[in-house]
């Protein structure tokens, strides 16, 4: 929307001169225009482009955990042994979780 900076602007006195009736009518107009919309219904009809991945095939190669790696008992991520912070009762914890 273009703004005409040369147009005269209302002063503070003119802004305060708005009648109570005019302000009330604006409030009624705003409340009358609001519509209750069920977000679930609205989301069901909306589909993202390219969202159907049923024909896709995964092309990721999964490598088993190596001898020098461990699985953290808190975050369940596989880390190198150099990231091992503590081990007690077979429960290994990485440095990030121990911090």
UniProtKB/TrEMBL annotation:
It holds the Pfam family DUF4193. Residues 1-43 are annotated as: Disordered. Residues 1-13, 21-30 have a biased composition (Basic and acidic residues). This is dUTPase. The lineage of its organism: Bacteria, Bacillati, Actinomycetota, Actinomycetes, Micrococcales.
């Amino acid at each position: 929307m273009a703004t005409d900076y040369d147009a005269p602007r209302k002063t503070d006195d003119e802004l305060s001169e708005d009648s109570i009736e005019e302000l009330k009518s604006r409030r009624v107009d705003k409340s009358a225009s609001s519509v209750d919309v069920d977000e679930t219904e609205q989301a069901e009809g909306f589909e993202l482009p390219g969202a159907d991945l049923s024909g896709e095939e995964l092309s990721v190669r999964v490598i088993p955990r190596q001898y020098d790696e461990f699985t953290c008992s808190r975050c369940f991520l596989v880390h190198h042994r150099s990231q091992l912070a503590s081990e007690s009762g077979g429960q290994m914890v990485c440095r990030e979780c121990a911090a």
